[in-house]
Amino acid sequence: MKTDTCVTYDVLRQIAFSMGASLFGVADLDRIREDTDLLNPCYDAYSRGISVGVTLDEAALAGIVDGPTPEYCREYIRVNAVLDSIARALAEAIERIGASAVRIPASEVVDWERLRGHLPHKLIGRYAGHGWIGRNILLVHPHFGARVRYVTVLTDLPLEPDSPTERSCGTCMRCVAVCPAGAPKEDPKRFDLRACFNKLAEFNERLDEPHFICGLCVSACRGNKTGEKGGAT
Ligand code: SF4
Ligand code: SF4
Fold first, then answer.
1. Residues 68/145, Cβ–Cβ less than 8 Å
2. Residue 136 Cα, ligand 1 centroid: separation in angstroms?
3. What confidence tens digit (pLDDT) does each residue in 122-141 have?
């Protein structure tokens, strides 16, 4: 396999944006392995993680007042479908030039009680430079906040990686104020997963949809455009 990694990065980015992506970045998986134990060893053959984000439609978020709405649920499903199509196209493009790729579906959550997928998209997204893990324990983009969903494609293609941002939530506490379960705290390490999960289960019954969604701290999170550092990371 012989590729110009810059050209390949740009080609893959172009494919993603032509299909509706809002964000594209590449994480160095070896750096994640050095920093954390969060990458499953079953992905050891891959050195890069492509993270693609698609923003949620403002109109679908506007109706969220005290819990998820059918409009938000439809938007959640629509965006996941767009992300999965993009991931498929990227994987096929990578395989055409002789490299390997594996797609991690946008909505995959293996462990609902700990709200974790087999591979956390937010981890790859953070190392791909999209943002930081906020007080709502979501990936927070400086401009789009948490109003973005992500998909991941792992590959052994030696793409030039992006770098994580040093930004943070700073003094923002919007998600802390809006959460009906009291789950987000000033210190993100104290996020109450059990309280959040119980609230999602309550919403799940009310919504009558096979998704555990809420939307309140997603809708409230508009990032931190000032570049403030400190506070949550
Ligand atoms: S998803 Fe809902 S319940 Fe969970 S932290 Fe966000 S606002 Fe709270
Ligand atoms: S709402 Fe504010 S405090 Fe909460 S995650 Fe977003 S930027 Fe951070």
1. no
2. 7
3. 999 999 999 999 999 999 99
Q: Under 8 Å CB-to-CB from 175, ≥6 apart: which residues?
A: 134, 135, 136, 146, 184, 216, 217, 220, 221
- The two three-digit tokens of residue 50, written as one number: 């492509």
Please give the distance, rounded to the nearest whole angstrom, from the Cα atom of residue 137 to the centre of ligand 1.
10
- All structural domains of the chain with their residue ranges: 1-226
- Determine the Cα–Cα distance for residues 164 and 141; give it in Å rounded to an integer: 11
Q: What are the φ and ψ backbone dihedral angles of 35, each rounded to 5 degrees?
A: -85, -30
Query: Is the minimum distance from the CB of 136 to ligand 2 under 6 angstroms?
Result: yes
Q: 100-123 as b/e, with b when 16 or more CB fall inside 10 Å?
A: ebbbbebbbeeeeeebbbebbbbb
pTM of the model: 0.91
Compute how many other C-beta atoms are within 10 angstroms of the C-beta atom of residue 63. 13
Q: Which residue's C-alpha comes closest to atom 6 of ligand 2?
A: 221
In whole angstroms, give the CA distance from residue 39 to residue 50: 14
Query: Which residue, chain included where needed, has tokens 């789950």?
Result: 183
